[in-house]
Amino acid sequence: LPLVISAPHGGTLTPSEIADRTYGTTVRDLNTDLLADEVADAFEARTGERPHLIVARIHRQKVDLNREIVEAAQGDGLAEQAWYEFQAMIDHASQQVEAQHGSGFYLDLHGHGHEIQRLELGYLLSAGDLALSDVELGQEAHRNSSSIRALAADADDFLELVRGATSLGSRFEALGIPAVPSQSQPGPGADPYFSGGYNTARHGSRDGGTVSGFQIEAHRSVRDNDPGRAALAAAIAEVLESVLVERYGWTPGG
Questions:
Q1: Angle, CA 173 vertex, CA 248 and CA 236 arms, to 5°
Q2: Phi and psi dihedrals of 108, rounded to 5?
Q3: Is the pTM of this model over 0.90?
Q4: Mean pLDDT of all residues in the chain?
Q5: 155-184 confidence digits (pLDDT tens)
Q6: pLDDT of 254 strictly over 80
Q7: Which are the contacts of 85, defined by CB distance < 8 A and separation ≥ 6?
Q8: Strand 179-180 and strand 119-122: pairing?
Q9: What residue ranges in the chain does DSSP mark as E strands?
Q10: What three-state secondary structure class fits 59?
């Protein structure tokens, strides 16, 4: 499939031969490893095909797979090996997508603990960027600094992708899942918001390539229980399928 999904922060394994990290964030994104598996299962149930899936089983306490290597591994050789292998697997999947399909889509899956219970969709656009008017946000500099640079053909297309009626956020909201940015919530305002991290920058299309990407930060209430997680996984699969069909011309089973 022209779809790559990664989940770097849900792992639970704490091998003693890898030293604990001494700075940076070390808490795991609860159940995001399970959510990633369920998204892949839901996508297969809908289409008969599976995305490329790279899930970390190691705990963030040992290595942070969404940071550059210095902060991520903090000098531990085995942590560095895990980091390189995780990133290389995403690189390899993206290369396969480009070779087989020409272009594709990437999702980095996370969880947040913010008070407002909504999905936070990150395109490497800050809360300040999203506070801009459409005319200002649609400028080429913002498109080029986003993780969907290759997918956005022009200013109008870029704005539609980020917060239009058919944007990812609006698609989630149509399924009953609040999301920002979207047509009804074009930006987070002064509320906490994650705009995308190392993986989104590295594996999206900001710095080149034809695989565009984004980050989902899922709220705690939909990750804490099996029914909520299953419903979110089904919604993510439905939204991603629509993107592949409408934006990439992909046909299930085609």
A1: 50
A2: -105, 120
A3: yes
A4: 97
A5: 999 999 999 999 999 999 999 999 999 999
A6: no
A7: none
A8: parallel
A9: 3-7, 52-55, 104-111, 119-122, 179-180, 211-218
A10: coil
